[in-house]
């Protein structure tokens, strides 16, 4: 069968299936004039696909490999035989997606880029099975912007049921220029090209100063690869606004998405301040958009937005100013202020104005979700035209305040957490959320208690004989990232063995803690299911020079774990290992491409979760005083959502990341019980865990606080 007959047959099949037509093929069926062009431009990529040589899942994951190089037959097995599987090649959609120049910086903060991503995801999502998805993505891989392709295919694999067992390659391994100092990557590439690279002697990545001296003390936190990966993965699960004109939402918002936006970023902010206290620093000031007010913190990016194209840097005392927002919007400081004021008015009035003019008064438990979508703002915003896009355009304004050329790291989710101004801006965003939370009534005794359940004791045992009881030990640790799939080195001059088969490792330092176990002794007067929440907070407030008052301390509690437990009608010994935390994820930056994942914890969360090695803040050499808070609440009558059961599947859900489908696994508000102000008589944490007064004052039996220390051993 010659090529014209093949194309004619495929075109007929496409029309019968109603899936469009071949790119640039005339409707009258005159294919002859197109054949030469097709063979010339696509000789290495037939529209036929044969899957007998490589597994489909392995093939599709290899599409992420070396994204700025053209795809080769060694990466992807395009068929050259008659065996084929038809797929859609929509020419009008492809031409739109190709409008993004490959040298342009792709960003999800850009509405035009988001629409292109939505169109590409739409194409991927409507492929009928994995084989068609492999064919379509294989064809489009070199036709569109590499960053756009990575983003769209990553979201697709996360949200299609037939790819739920695949580990989406971590961005840091295929686009390391967004995570690793450009000088280090150049050094690695030169060593490979010169034939001097030794995989047994990886290059060490030394922390480079990117900001002020004080902020550099937190380099291990802000510039950590795992922290940035968590932020990127979270926004893959919960994209901003992925809509196609006259089509609608591509990835519908997930259950309690707006509340998740609030809670995840609130926890990041609390952890950042915990690290500041660990390094002798005070709380950072919130950043508000004000005319002519400078940003004292500089940021000198050492990473690149595209290979060999660096992010723009921001000098000390740069002033916020009017900026351009695509496609043709001019955003002023007053615009940001107006949106903020309208959101605060909504909080004060307890009402929400929708686009159709309807005004509603949400219930307390519903408003935080609406508010989160309103502040960010995502597709679920009730009224984008009125409440604006405070968070997103704030990021864009900061990313452009240095001047008209280029953008700073605040313009991309994969690296914005590196900039110290990220925490100042999110401090202001969190301040807005707190205006709502402080208007809510304190939790009642009934809401906080759990009749018949009493925690008798809580102890922490670290797996180190030199560590005392109720002491956490942190230290430095060296790990490796394999960048062989992201170096984009042409296969020549003897470099093939490095880019094809051997890992290319870079060594980097990160914080780590010694593994530990919680021992929680609980008495229950009946068989019952409980939700265990474990939080940690610093005991001392350096801003006021005294032990924390509860109204401030509640905002710096970090959640360490949350899980469901079956209590028997007697004494219960609950042993919980630190590695079991539902909020963390074990991230291996050496995971090879083209593999399905067998680790249930990583697979269930699609890679989203706080880095396990950063579960415990750094602390101090002498031991940073902290408070460990443990609470058991009624799961059946407080946390249970419709249709859920205390199963292993429930235990695998990450409270920071939510779910890909269905309902969020815990009904109570995120951050409970510290998300609201306390009773008027509560001044300290000790007051909070007690009820009654005078002789009738007693501890809530289902709560327990332990004085702990976090000791940092810099010699390890």
UniProtKB/TrEMBL annotation:
Transmembrane segments: none annotated. It holds the Pfam family Hemocyanin_C. GO terms for molecular function: metal ion binding; tyrosinase activity. InterPro entries: Di-copper_centre_dom_sf (IPR008922), Hemocyanin/hexamerin (IPR013788), Hemocyanin/hexamerin_mid_dom (IPR000896), Hemocyanin_C (IPR005203), Hemocyanin_C_sf (IPR037020), Hemocyanin_N (IPR005204), Hemocyanin_N_sf (IPR036697), Ig_E-set (IPR014756). It comes from the Eukaryota. Residues 442-712 form the Hemocyanin C-terminal domain. Its cofactor is Cu(2+). This is Prophenoloxidase. It comes from Bemisia tabaci (Sweetpotato whitefly).
